[in-house]
Write a structure and sequence with these properties.
The protein is an all-alpha fold and 445 residues long. The protein has 20 helices and no strands. Keywords: Electron transport, Membrane, Mitochondrion, NAD, Respiratory chain, Translocase, Transmembrane, Transmembrane helix, Transport, Ubiquinone.
Length: 445
């Protein structure tokens, strides 16, 4: 594990040179390939050092972090063209990648918390430094305060667990079962619920997405939302008894909230806001499945987290490609694109079909698992799930048909055809999303 961390750390020295952008991107992909083939896949913790180790759950999310960070650089060519603090931008992405690898490979609960919070700093700088509009300051403050205020109780909870069990190791804590400590249950969960985000504490997400540059949106949708789910999967082993008492509250909020957010999606006119709100709806079903504490629910939530990371990131790339040509994110202006950029319509269709869990995408597998687990938990959830599935398809079709069909806007276009770099970017989102389902047995945690 250390060799991969050192490889990324030594990449920082390249940042003293000029014109090094694509070199750094290639190094990230090389590091990912080495990681994929060198690490022996295990269902239990392996590659263990004193604080760092890895099991199957970590492995998939570290790979996703490498993949999305490489694609973020591929999507950000405009930063090179504008010569907009290129090396500082590279530094932020490498630092973020390092923090994500540390987070997902931490075996200590406190180390996990430390790196979980540290990943917020580069994200904040990406939004504030390379965002589009003055409102990015407000978006940054929302992101900072929601995340920090929710995570302070988590720190208190971690100290309490350390005081009572004398260990911070995830493996040792999995044998610990806490009961009659409702306050601790809330402390341990709330930070992760905000990070996912759960409905009612989701307001920071659309703001952050809309104001972030394309790279910021990709990492937010692709990996940072998964930190919350990963944290929940790790701490649930010690909260099972309390979970059986109180999880029904979160399941109810998530399912009803998912339906309401899907309705909000149907009247969005901003491309990025629509995709951001769809993330909240998807994370609602992930959270519900996870809270059932069934084998299918935990597996399904993990599969859908990986699938959503690839699919949502690809949709943000598409929205950015349209924005670069049209100068607007509004659906009123980005309509009739089938006449204007026909080569892009196929990619809109493929990624939109992934977003509404059409076969053969990984989303479908995840949703089948989750629907089974939630319905087996209570048949009453079928009502919410039926609406959620219907509206999920409705807003995705609305996004596709509104942006691709109709009379195109007769304003002045900055016309340029799609470059090979942009096609490659979209292919690299879509291929793993559809190929991973062929080897779906590796997701059985």
């Amino acid at each position: 594990m250390l060799k991969f961390i050192f490889m990324i750390m030594f990449t920082f020295f390249f940042l003293f040179k000029k014109n090094i952008f694509w070199m750094v991107q290639n190094l990230i992909f090389i590091c990912m390939a080495l990681f994929m083939f060198k690490i022996k896949l295990s269902y239990y913790f392996c590659s263990i050092s004193y604080y760092f180790g890895m099991d199957l759950m970590s492995y998939g999310l570290i790979l996703l972090s490498f993949w999305i960070c490489g694609l973020m650089l591929m999507a950000s060519e405009n930063i090179i063209k504008a010569n907009n603090y290129v090396n500082l931008f590279l530094f932020m992405i490498l630092f973020l990648l390092l923090m994500l690898i540390f987070t997902f490979s931490s075996m200590s609960l406190f180390m996990f918390y430390l790196f979980f919070e540290s990943s917020l700093i580069p994200t904040l700088f990406l939004i504030l430094g390379w965002g589009y509009q003055p409102e990015r300051l407000q978006a940054g403050i929302y992101l900072l305060f929601y995340t920090l205020l929710a995570s302070l109780p988590l720190l208190i909870g971690i100290f309490y667990i350390k005081n009572s069990s004398f260990t911070m190791n995830f493996f040792m804590l999995s044998y610990l079962n806490l009961y009659n400590l409702e306050f601790l249950y809330l402390c341990m969960l709330f930070a992760f619920l905000v990070k996912m985000p759960m409905f009612l504490v989701h307001l920071w997400l659309p703001k952050a997405h809309v104001e972030a540059p394309v790279s910021g949106s990709m990492i937010l949708a692709g990996v940072l939302l998964k930190l919350g789910g990963y944290g929940l999967l790790r701490v649930f082993s010690m909260l099972q008894i309390l979970g059986m008492k109180f999880n029904m509250v979160w399941i109810s909020i998530s399912l009803i909230g998912g339906v309401l957010v899907s309705l909000i999606c149907l009247w969005q006119m901003d491309l990025k806001a629509l995709i951001a709100y769809s993330s909240v709806a998807h994370m609602g079903i992930v959270l519900s499945g996870m809270m059932t504490l069934t084998y299918w629910g935990l597996n399904g939530s993990y599969i859908l987290m990986i699938a959503h990371g690839l699919c949502s990131s690809g949709l943000f790339c598409l929205a950015n490609i349209s924005y670069e040509r049209m100068g607007s994110r509004s659906l009123l202006i980005n309509k009739g694109m089938l006449n204007f950029l026909p080569s892009l319509s196929l990619w809109w269709f493929l990624l939109c079909s992934g977003n509404m869990a059409a076969p053969p995408t990984l989303n479908l597998l995840g949703e089948i698992f989750l629907l089974n687990s939630i319905v087996s938990w209570s048949w009453l959830t079928m009502i919410s799930l039926a609406f959620l599935s219907f509206f999920s398809a409705a807003y995705t079709l609305y996004l596709f048909s509104y942006s691709q069909h109709g009379k195109f806007y007769s304003g002045i276009y900055f016309f340029s055809s799609i470059t090979i770099r942009e096609f490659l970017l979209l292919i690299l989102h879509w291929l793993p999303l559809n190929l991973l389902i062929m080897k779906s047995n590796i997701f059985m945690l």
